[in-house]
Amino acid sequence: MPSDVKKVVLAYSGGLDTSVILRWLQDAYGAEVVTFTADLGQGEELEPARQKAEMLGIKDIYIEDLREEFVRDYVFPMFRANAIYEGTYLLGTSIARPLIAKRQIEIARETGADAVSHGATGKGNDQVRFELGYYACNPDIKVIAPWREWDLNSRTRLIEYAEKHQIPISKDKRGETPYSQDANLLHISSEGKVLEDPWVEPDESVYTRVVPPWRAPDKVTEIEIDFENGDPVAINGETLTPAALLTKLNELGGANGIGIDDIVENRFVGMKSRGVYETPGGTVLFHARRAMESLTLDGGAMHQKDEVMARYAELVYNGFWFAPEREMLQAAVDTASERVTGTVRVKLYKGNVIVAGRKSPNSLYDEALVTFEEDQVYDQRDAEGFIKLNALRLMTLNRSNKG
């Protein structure tokens, strides 16, 4: 191992993998380790991570509540683009990585560290997302990815290493866990193990944030969401911070069976993977935003946004949050979002988000134009010339083929 690494900032959860990595970095590199644990709303008590880090001799321990920054500066801008990867995935894991990477680099600068490290495996997308983020924020940083270097390539060997070095292991880690989970305020994902066969339906025990739709209450929950310049700001008239608003939508959506997606996706590294995602608040927000846009955006602007949405989603999924092309697309969607102000009323029922009403001071909906009754603002005879001009090339092609 290189001897020039003196101090490493580790993205640390306190779980088995990163606890082993912590000690491995000390042994393999002889380096001082700084731990960084981000609270992104994963719903876990983070103080045990501090206690375990202290037990393992760590002096510099960073545990930071980043929930508001996460939702305000990452989730909401992404939702302004209506970003969905491969038509289904609301990018819950993907959008968390650039914030963690950015903060790791900042901590490395604050503590004088010359390297950063993460616990992502060599098969997944997260290694790419973390490391693209690191290099975007500091091109000269040294990156250590233990899963690509060590020989601890099984759960059994990780546990053996932990026991040998007296690293505390929770009882549930000694056996095979049914799946691997990653959580933040936007979603929770479940992958691997019993979920690896895409034909096998997941057991209901996988669902931790969403009541399965078939077990959701047999009654409608109706709510109103207020938007300003593209972002949600209030629920039922109550103004909330970004993190508090998404938390509330998670509660409402989860209780009504909303936001479960069982997906086979194409990873950036080239393989397909199956995952079960729960994104209750994000699913409600996505449908409500679309309803608000339908009222306030010009048709050309809406269609242009839809065209760039897939590209934007792919950039986020692949880890290019800090890339100039993502920032260029962001500038475009933010400009469009300046009109997206108003209120949407939705009904939540057994996994469904049903738009019941929408209103806006910026509405482009003109009842005088669309009415089926007699009007004085639209001459229907104008449509004939419009149609014939659009049909001209088709008519010419037909005559040419016959001739």
What can be said about this structure in brief?
With 403 residues, the chain is α/β, with parallel strands linked by helices.
Protein described:
- The protein contains 12 helices and 14 strands.
- By secondary structure, it is an alpha/beta fold.
- Among the domains are: 142 residues, 3-Layer(aba) Sandwich (Rossmann fold), CATH 3.40.50.620; 138 residues, Argininosuccinate synthetase, chain A, domain 2 (Alpha-Beta Complex).
- The strands form 3 sheets. The chain has a 5-stranded parallel beta sheet with strand order 3-2-1-4-5, with helices on both faces. The protein has a 5-stranded antiparallel beta sheet with strand order 10-9-8-13-14, with helices on one face.
- Strand 6 and strand 7 form a beta hairpin.
- The radius of gyration is 25 Å and the shape is elongated.
- The mean pLDDT is 93.
